[in-house]
Each structure stands twice: as C-alpha cells, then as structure tokens.
C-alpha cells in the first residue's frame, strides 16, 4: 500500500514538538490538508487547529471520518499510553487509517518503568541495576536502598508529567521520599516505585523510527532539563537542546545500535508487540559505553525542535515506510549543520506561573525558527499559555554559531516574565576544545 498524493493529515498535540512536526509535515508536496488538535498559535501557521482533546478518542474518530483523514500522527505520550493505536485498529470504520505511534502494549515502555526495565533485562539491553517495589514492600525497598551506593534513583512507575524521577544523595532522604511516593505524591503513578543504581556519565537522546521490524536512527540530541544555568535547580520539561552531540561519534553510535537499538526492536518482535512509530532512548554515556536510562514512545520535547530541522528528506515518506512496513526503503537525509534550540519559559516556571502575557517581536524577520510551545492567538496578537512558551531553533556551522543566532532572536522577543538559560550547549563546546 501507498499514501495518496493528496493526503489529509491529523496531528495530535499542542506543544513545541507538534509545531516542529507541523512545519515539517506541511513541507511535503503530498499533503493536501493538515489539521492539528488542539495545536497552538504556531501550528496555526502550518495548518488548521481544531479544538479536540487528543485523549477523547470518540471525538478524534468523528473528526477523522468527517474530514477524510488519511493519516494520524500522535505527538504526546498520553494518547499512546491510553491506547489510541489499538482504538483505531479495533474499529472497522477507521482501522484502515494508519496511526504513527505504538500499540498500547508498546506504549508500556514509557507508561510503566517497571515494564521497561523488565523488557531490558529480558532482551539483554544494558541498563542500571534495579528492583521494583509496591507500597506494601516498604521494608524490602529500604533494604535495597541500603544495598546501593549513593546517590539513589527513585522512579514512580507510571506517567508523572516528567516529575516522577528523584535523585538523592542521602539514604535517609531517599527512604523519606520513597514513603512520600507510596503515600500518593505522584498519585497512582507511585503505587510501584523502581529503585536503581546511579549511573555517572553524560546523557544524550537517541531517536529511532521503526515499523516494528526495520528502523532508522535519527539525529542524536542532548537536552537540558534543569531550570538554572550549570544544570541547577528543579527539573523542567526541557530548557534547550543541541544536535548533533560531539561525543556521540561513529564508534559510540555503533555500540548504541548493536547493544541497544537492534536488541530493542528485535525484542519488540519476539514479544509480539506492534510498534509503528518513534522510540526515544534516553542514554547515559558511561566511560564510552551506552546504558539506557529510560524509553519514551514518542519524540522528545524540545529535542524534536533540533532533530526535525536537520532532516532534509520527506517526513511523509518516512511515515509511509513506518505505516506499511517498508521503512528499510526510506532514505534518511540529514543536514551536517548543527541545530540548537533555546526554550523561553514563563516567570516562575516550573513552579507557579502566570498566563496570558502578550508576546511581541514574533513578526521580526530572523534566521531562526521560532517554535511555539505554550501560546495562544487572539486576533492578531499572541499570548503565553504555558510554562514553556517558545523554542528558538537556529542552524549553523557550529554550536557557538547556532547559539549566537538563537540568543540574538530571543533578544528581540518580549513578554512579561520571560526567562531562559544562557548556557545551553556550553558543556559540549568545552568537549570540542
């Protein structure tokens, strides 16, 4: 099977990742109409925003049927973990419409950290030593903490909006945190807690497109999670990203493919898990050897904002390969340029923050790509609508060149409470010296 030459696409999601997808999808000559549900002020420049909750599968189905949608692309994890792929497959009215995203079982790689760790152990994928505990096993969990060297890594099993991972240097503090997690700090996501040894190294994000059998490794990125310079302060959804990553050289990536990517895709096949979408592998480079920190079952944010601008081949052709099991025929073309994105956030984020601040300077011509993350449009004005507001991406011949362009663009954008990190990529520049 093949996609038609006049494709109607529905993209689910509303963040910077979805704006990056929308921009890339809209570039394809085979796309007739692009709808984004619910989208933001930026995605509205690429297609038509529709007021639909991606988790309301009945509404999604109704829109798909009413608008002759030929392809559904799922951006965020929640619809996947809730089983939107299976919902389409099991409904005869829409089962012929490809969904880019894994099955409910495949989405458990992100939806359950315990499931993911067991999958890695079963298929020989290198990861940190761990054990999982339910709330009735507090004494056993505390004993396992005592068996580990500091620092201690505690992970709520389920989805916790990116806040379910805690790293503590003191065993007593780790035990107190564990008790809080079992007591409902992260809701039902903390009913099971994964405790694991700490891996010391430098992180990167490896993205894989797969049709369940064949795969393509996309550009590697590194993101910056903490709110403050020097990786200080609380974790956020992501304050910036860089691609490519200097230490992810050919030798390292050969290890990644042989030890992690291939065993993971083969493991999905062996376990009979349908997987047609993206796999985000969070890695730690430990003295030159890759270890998996976590799996996510979609593209990352803000990493998508540096990965997709570097892909020069047709994204719809990639989706066709994913949907119909022919990804091996897809020729992935990647720009050698460096991409850097710097995220502008609302004042107070990741804590309490105000919304509805008018944003100025978005109409100024710039060499950067300004992806909207948490924005909304009212008339001809744009306002803040989230913690992460904009992701400003630039391409250049080096990290320093791309960074300079992004910061120059940010200087021309204004809204009350604007905050951003001024050291994105500086650690990688140091590696290049």
TrEMBL record:
Gene that specifies this protein: purD
Record-stated family: Belongs to the GARS family.
InterPro entries: ATP-grasp (IPR011761), ATP_grasp_subdomain_1 (IPR013815), PreATP-grasp_dom_sf (IPR016185), PRibGlycinamid_synth_ATP-grasp (IPR020561), PRibGlycinamide_synth (IPR000115), PRibGlycinamide_synth_C-dom (IPR020560), PRibGlycinamide_synth_C_sf (IPR037123), PRibGlycinamide_synth_N (IPR020562)
Chain ranges of the ATP-grasp domain: 117-324
Alphabetical UniProt keywords: ATP-binding, Ligase, Nucleotide-binding, Purine biosynthesis
Pathways involved: Purine metabolism; IMP biosynthesis via de novo pathway; N(1)-(5-phospho-D-ribosyl)glycinamide from 5-phospho-alpha-D-ribose 1-diphosphate: step 2/2
Name the record gives this protein: Phosphoribosylamine--glycine ligase
E.C. numbers: 6.3.4.13
Catalytic activity of the protein: 5-phospho-beta-D-ribosylamine + glycine + ATP = N(1)-(5-phospho-beta-D-ribosyl)glycinamide + ADP + phosphate + H(+)
A Gene Ontology molecular function term of the record: phosphoribosylamine-glycine ligase activity
GO BP terms in the entry: 'de novo' IMP biosynthetic process; purine nucleobase biosynthetic process
